[in-house]
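New to this. Explain these tokens.
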Amino acid sequence: LLLCGPAGTNALIQASTDFRIWTVLTNFTFRSDNLYDYFEPHAADHPMRIYQVAPRLKARIVEPPRDLAVPEGGSATFVAIVGGTAPLSYQWKHNGSDVPGGTNASLVVTITQSTDRGAYQVRVTNLVGRVTSEEAQLCVLGDEKTVHILSVRLMSDRNTARVLICGPAGRTGILQGSRDFKTWTPLTSFTFESNLYEHLDLDAGQSSWRFYKVAPLPAKVSKIIPLDPNQLQMVIEGGGARTGDYEGLSAVISVSTDLIQWSPLSTNMISGGAINFTDPDANRVPHRFYKFELVP
């Protein structure tokens, strides 16, 4: 085969017997005389042989690895779909460091310790160049059943932030945002359908700083049950109380006689969806109102 083209240009010679399946015969670069010749030793072995010249394509990420959540002791498999001219080589990274033996198109991570969680990505290389995928987050689900923010990433438009939250399926919460750690604004409420929830904050780039936290959904007092003359039980329902998000948290009980002026009464722990507390003045006034606020 004698080929002609601009000196220094890189390309591939491909061959086929049916115009459908093409096999790479060689990578080459045109010589300074704008020519390149190639000898295929087994061309006569085929009744028909078709050739074409194709450009060499740089390695590229078609579909990056996806975020995963797995329980302790389980395993996670990261897969990246890539393109580009073969041969392609792979190197997986965990939190920026090479994973020993992570040189295949997929990576299996067996969760043996808490340090296995974090960010995973793959670097793909071929003769033309290299590319590194976006990070995929691995959330390890422990027995504590906590909800936490796994990662925050500013998107390519430099204005949208992707907030990834991890937690047990069925749990609920509110994602809040702040610019100063003082004033917190609800951004969205959510329920985990799986173990991951993604929120896009479209206004993140409008301020120099942006902070996020997750809080339980608000609940309400459904009834007050007198246990004895001064002992009362406040039963809460709805929101985070329904899914157990409030269990074990502390709450400040406030009291009022007119629903206008409120005074703190005591700080108690929520247990079993209820708060037991004491009010020495419960029977001394005609009307007595109570409310609770979670301790930050």
